[in-house]
Amino acid sequence: MSTAQAEAKAFVSQMPLKMFIGGKWVDADAGKTFEVRDPGDGGVIARVSEGDSKEVDLAVSAARQAFTKSGWATKPANDRAVILHRLADLIDRNREIIAQIESLDVGKPVAQPLGFDVPNAAQTFRYYADLSVYVRRREPIAVTGFEARTARFPYGVCGFIVPWNFPFLLLCWGIAPALAAGNTVVVKPAEDTPLSTLYFCKLAEEAGIPAGVINIVTGFGGAAGAALARHPGINRMTFTGSPEVGRLVAESCGRNLVPVKLELGGKGAAVLFDDIDVDQAADALVGAVTLNAGQVCCTATRWLVQENIWDKFVERASSTMQSLRIGYGGDPDTAIGPVVSAKQQSRVLNFLEKGTKEGASFLLQGGKADVKGHEGGFYVKPTLLTGSADNVCAREEIFGPVAYVMRFKEEQEAVDLVNRSNYGLANSVWSRDLGRANRVAEAMVAGNSWINGHNLFAHGIPYGGCNLSGFGGGVLGPDTLLDYLREQSVVRPLS
Ligand code: NAD
User: pTM to 2 decimals?
Assistant: First the structure.
């Protein structure tokens, strides 16, 4: 066992793992705990304190106290930036431990959080820390007859509810801009995957973030999550997760007139024209739909293939999919780990059953996969389906390693197929003809259109959704920082 593995196991095996509120590690008031399982073999790996509305109250009041009293909100931006850079460095220094925890908790192959989630999370703190130094907190407004300016202030206490597919990365994408702007936060991680969020608090303490600036309440969505969403003491809410729960969170926020940002699901398409390098595009899309066992909101799950490259494309995609090793996340040869839970495994298998009953057929047969030595794990084979655009598997988010492949002849037909979806998160177009690619990219209705690639992220490029995929801002862009600063005009008549 490597040192990082040993440290990760030692951290998660503290029984129970406590919540982090007001700078203290606390048990749930009622003494309740819940189990966290390893998706790779179904075994219990941790026991975590189960908070509910009582702990949410404590966390919101600790965050309020820190907002008004700790000096975090009123520090010059560069002083906060120094602390956030220190936190980013600590994330980098502990990246192997965080990647091990994430792999244990989510099931993903260790190389993935090690190569992407964790370094990207550290970089997110650096990006917003640096940007915050240059945001103009006071901007003059030139209007005849007045001396006027816009002033920008942090909102106060910001709530965050996070899903289980990228727990560490989405935590950091969410809270980094809010903290850099001077807010304090209360976070409810997903009950399936709370472990790396708790480890993060150790690093935040070490970086010198004042007590109460970051508060974590672990617990279930219907109790802790709902209590946070309806809490009158929060000033802003950010929710990442399913549209079903997003609606409930938005309703609660609406009742309190609290602004809310929703980052929801997707049913992304990839449009493949016949002038592409077919093998390269097929391999890239197989990589996209099997990343994190397909549990990626923005991934391409509907592949629209121009008819004269259909055979070559399907053959290559099937053979590449079959070559990927399904295995335990901690095994270095694993390309596709398990899905996160037994519930998620049933969801994917039920979709395959419903889809084929409605007339879809397999281009590559999917189903449950067994991994020797890890019999209790939640493994699913990558799958290619084809059939009508009305099929349930072509319409709904499956959230597993499943692509639905359809043919098209003409450009407009492809655009119409893409835009049949109620979701609007991310699509891609693949063509050597950049005029056509750019035209299609703009015609596909979504928050993000990618050309000759899928799942493309960089700090500075905004990422968000429209329609059923959410609203209210998004992440990663420069404006995301402004989302966490409220504007106030200050005006004096000159005569
Ligand atoms: P989910 O909506 O079931 O849960 C998300 C979070 O909400 C969890 O922390 C959960 O405990 C909490 N929650 C559940 N019920 C709640 C309630 N009644 N009130 C308040 N909070 C509650 O989603 P999931 O299954 O964890 O994640 C998968 C979904 O997230 C997919 O739809 C995926 O596409 C979406 N997602 C979107 C993005 C994005 O950036 N757009 C990123 C990742 C995941």
Answer: 0.97
